[in-house]
Design brief:
Blueprint lengths: L2 E7 L3 H11 L7 E8 L2 E8 L2 H9 L8 E7 L14 E2 L5 E6 L5 H10 L11 H9 L5 H8 L7 E7 L5 E7 L4 E5 L2 E5 L11 E4 L5 E5 L2 E5 L5 E2 L4 E2 L4 H5 L6 H7 L1 H10 L2 E2 L2 E2 L8 H6 L2 E6 L1 H18 L3 E5 H4 L10 E7 L5 H12 L3 E6 L5 H5 L2 E4 L12 H20 L5 H32 L8 E6 L2 H17 L2 E6 L16 E6 L5 H12 L4 E7 L11 E5 L7 H19 L18
Parallel strand pairs: 18-19, 18-20, 20-21, 21-22, 23-24, 23-25, 25-26, 26-27
Antiparallel strand pairs: 1-4, 1-10, 2-3, 2-4, 5-6, 6-7, 7-8, 8-12, 9-10, 9-11, 11-15, 12-13, 13-14, 16-17
Helix pairs in contact: 4-5, 8-14, 8-15, 10-14, 10-16, 14-15, 15-18, 16-18
The chain binds 6-O-phosphono-alpha-D-glucopyranose.
6-O-phosphono-alpha-D-glucopyranose binds next to α10.
Length: 609
Amino acid sequence: MCGIVGYTGKNLAVPYLIDGLSKLEYRGYDSAGVAVMENGRISVTKKSGRLSVLEKELAKHEQSTATVGIGHTRWATHGRPSDENAHPHLSENCLFAVVHNGIIENYAALKEQLESEGIHFSSQTDTEVISQLLEKNYDGSFLSSVQKTLPMLEGAYALAVLCRDEPDTVICAKKASPLVLGKSEEGIFAASDVTAVLKHTRDVYKLSDGETAVCRGASLSFYSADGKPVQKSCEHITWSAEDAQKGGYDHFMLKEIFEQPAAFAATVNQHITGGKLSFENLPLSKDEIGKLDRIVITACGSAYHTGIVGKYIFESLTRIPTEVDIASEFRYRDPILTENTLVIIISQSGETADTLAALRLAKEKGARVLSIVNVVGSTIANESDGVIYTAAGPEIAVATTKAYSTQLAVLYLLCGHFAFERGLMDADGLSRYLLELQSIPKKINEVLEANRERAKELAKLFVPLDHAYYIGRGLDFAAATEGSLKMKEISYIHSEAYAAGELKHGTISLVEKGTLIVALACHEPLFAKTMSNIREVVSRGARILAVTTDRHKDEMKDFDFVLTVPETLLPFCASLEVVVLQLLAYYASLYRGCDIDKPRNLAKSVTVE
Ligand code: G6P
């Protein structure tokens, strides 16, 4: 996610801004920039690449004497990483400069309107609409221009703004994205998180949604959403800088598990307006979607596991034969692809070597390639015929959680779109489907709240184990593959996922008294079948840790341990149960004393074959 800093006070602004941005580097970024008030104008310096590139650029000019400024590290979402798309963004007449973290969901409509009024944009970002609106709404008061602009913005934002006419002031505002303000005798420090402020002060104010902060010299005042002054009390931070990066969580993985509701919502909401779906970069017309005779999903690791979910839902909802293959296998198996085959490439990093090779092979063979990628401007995104971005933000823990969840979110969106375009889902059906999809973030939250403590307790069962098994049918099996991988990669316990109905053809011979089996039973139409398979292993002495939906809680009460998740439409059930499995893996790894965020032998981005 993007990082924001701001400073007003008696010291030089640039050194603080750069130091603050360096503390936010862990959030991930592809470009950086600063804007300072200098000689009666706003001076902007911004560069694609690392912070050091920006520093070199700044060093080419005389040292800035400015004492007021804003800065930003950008994680691209709208518009590729480039100098023009880097923040800060100036308004057309250079009256305002803005840095922004979040996504303005209605930016396309706002931009169209502003352009029709003759306003020229110089970037492809959603953020630039904010600076242009501020200038359009300007009536001689910086604060009132901000207060008029904020209600026009839908989506999430943390903002820091400069105005040429009030050179001693930075105004900050937030909705859904974090923003803190630190106050010391040296001045006011604004930042996306306390890490960037701790060096200067441990007394911080957390801005609430809808609030505005006016920083002027060393004074700080707050306003409510309706423009009334508000008093806020300051919080004394006792965490270390490293703790602060993790937002108070013990590990990045846990933080990212808890970020899933927001990441899922951001991914889905980008494409749903007024109950309708839209994709900017889908390389297929309605006619071409109708003609598709096959979908091939290929990816590595957890991204491959989302493809398994994809196979089940695409076949059942769109009736397009769908296969899923591990990229390192696909690339060497001389696959049969035609112009009516859609190859879906899934990758968080957009750089995985085998996945990239699979993409190139698919294109060479004449298939249409659509990628689902988290990193904007990555090689896979660039080389695909079309790309849909996940809005997971940077994922630091090697074991993926929120990237996996957001990849599923995109598959659900695509599946609904294809089913509708192929006439297999009517407008009412699609709107029910999308409504439920938009309720998944809330349900993931419920899963987290209801299961965290119990999962923490039950994870103790795994600690002494050498082996664990995950079983399920249909979408439960798909979720089991990911749950099992999570357990093995971070806790180093050997674990395998099996299709529950296949157990009796071999694996059941491994089941003995005390064997722990994680049994998933959320795929409603297959519930009774899965129950039979669970009984088969129970009668051979297995202990069961079951994950099922609320309605089946009682039927499962005879099993050893039961965790429940809310009901949802069948296609989305894996998104809820997998969260329980992530928690089990996280706590098992914690109890075993493993390096949760950086498991041995693993890398976040695998750019070798
Ligand atoms: C590594 C990561 C996994 C990831 C896989 C594919 O193994 O540890 O979390 O699923 O690579 O990476 P990608 O960036 O292509 O999604």
